[in-house]
Each structure stands twice: as structure tokens, then as C-alpha cells.
Design a protein that fits this description.
Blueprint: H1 2-7, H2 12-24, H3 28-41, H4 46-58, H5 62-75, H6 80-92, H7 96-109, H8 114-127, H9 131-144, H10 149-161, H11 165-178, H12 183-195, H13 199-212, H14 219-229
Helix pairs in contact: 2-3, 2-4, 3-4, 4-5, 4-6, 5-6, 6-7, 7-8, 8-9, 8-10, 9-10, 10-11, 10-12, 11-12, 12-13, 13-14
């Protein structure tokens, strides 16, 4: 990753991926530095604002960060970045209706705002609402952040929910490769494998999901699916 960045430091998508990897590796300071580097390279990059919002939120600075990005949004009404960050922070606080409005506002400013598109697509999918719109949004996110695990997971899961599990497997496998310690990605991949009849891979993915997060919200369902596969 370091060599790739040195060879092409202007690639904001690669910097954002590096930021995510740094956070997964337990280095939030480096994750923040990389996200801020994106804004130095590309000041209008909305996804970097969202990345910073995630970092701040997970470090316990939710209220402080929400107020900061709300202020920036008022100062930069034509920029999708700050309002996308507001949406991320509101979603982390469980204020989903307000987050949804923020993402819609961001996409109204910039239809290519990838994080807003991804997160709004996920909200649609979770509520079982308008999977056609969810897919369009997920494809926008994929086009602009093709290597981000969360984007691949959203796209793959929506394909699965639409009954296109064969198409789901590719992006879900990418999500797992990109973030192998995220239990939910293994769980979603297991569903796609089951739907396409690959019981062996489905069982392995479920086992890995439960190993990574035995108390996950989906643990009971994963255990039931495991029993069905025996």
C-alpha cells in the first residue's frame, strides 16, 4: 500500500482505502492523517469528509464532530462533503431519518457522492424499500469507490436481496478480501453461497462470521443456518 501511494499520491480513492485499512489495523491517528491528505490533494472530495466523520465518531467525538460538519455545511452549501459527513454522524447516533435527509441533500448537490449513495442504498436495503433505487445508488458508489469493502458489501447484498445471488458473490468476495475481519461481510457472503447452492463455502463463511463476532446481531440466524447445513 505504501509503495502504491508513493507511486501515485494523487489517487484519492487509494488514500481513502489506506485510511480504512489503518483504522482496521488499530491506528486511528494514521487513518485521520490519510483522510486529511485526501482533502489536501482534492479539497472537494466528499468521501474524505465522510471518512473523517467515521473516524471522529468511533473515537467518541460524535457531538463535537456533528456540530463541526453542520457548521461547514452551512458555510459550503454547494459542497456535498460536509453534509455527507453530517449524515454519517447522524446515522452513527441512530438518527436515521435525519441521516437519510442529509444523504439525499448531498446527492442533490453531487449525484456522484459515493459515500452518501452507498449509505442511502444500505438504508433502502435494510428497510426493504425500493431495491431498484438501492441498486442504482450502490452502483454509483461502486463506480467511484470500487475497492472499498463497505461499498462492495452493500452492492453484493442488494444483488442478493433482489434474487441475483450469482451477481452478489463477486462483490461480496471482494468485501471479504478487503476487510477479512468484518464478520457481517462473511455472513452476507454465506447467504449468497447458500442461495447458489454452494453449501461447503456457505458453511465456511458462517463459521468465520461466528468466530469473528460470536455475539453479533446476526449470530442466532447464523447458528440456525449452520444447523440447516449439517
Amino acid at each position: 500500500m505504501t509503495a502504491a501511494l508513493a507511486g501515485d499520491p494523487q489517487r484519492s480513492a487509494l488514500l481513502l482505502l489506506a485510511s480504512e485499512v489503518a483504522e482496521i489495523a488499530g491506528d486511528p491517528a494514521e487513518a485521520e492523517r490519510l483522510a486529511r491528505t485526501v482533502l489536501e490533494v482534492a479539497p472537494s472530495e466528499s468521501d474524505a469528509y465522510a471518512r473523517l466523520a467515521e473516524i471522529y465518531g468511533r473515537s467518541g467525538r460524535l457531538q463535537e464532530a456533528t456540530e463541526e460538519f453542520q457548521r461547514l455545511s452551512r458555510q459550503q452549501p454547494e459542497s456535498a462533503g460536509p453534509i455527507t459527513a453530517v449524515g454519517v454522524l447522524l446515522q452513527m447516533q441512530g438518527r436515521d431519518d435525519e441521516a437519510r435527509q442529509a444523504y439525499e441533500q448531498a446527492l442533490g448537490i453531487d449525484p456522484r457522492a459515493a459515500i452518501a449513495a452507498n449509505n442511502l442504498a444500505w438504508m433502502y436495503a435494510e428497510r426493504g424499500e425500493d431495491l431498484d433505487a438501492a441498486l442504482r445508488l450502490a452502483q454509483v458508489a461502486k463506480a467511484h469507490l470500487p475497492a472499498q469493502p463497505a461499498v462492495n458489501d452493500t452492492l453484493g447484498w442488494i444483488y442478493h436481496l433482489r434474487g441475483a445471488s450469482e451477481l452478489a458473490i463477486g462483490p461480496l468476495e471482494e468485501a471479504v478480501r478487503g476487510a477479512p475481519s468484518t464478520a457481517q461481510y462473511h455472513f452476507h457472503l454465506a447467504h449468497a453461497y447458500m442461495a447458489t447452492g454452494d453449501r461447503t463455502k456457505a458453511r465456511a463463511a458462517l463459521e468465520r462470521a461466528l468466530e469473528l463476532e460470536p455475539d453479533a446481531p446476526f449470530a442466532a440466524e447464523a447458528s440456525r443456518l449452520m444447523a440447516d447445513l449439517r
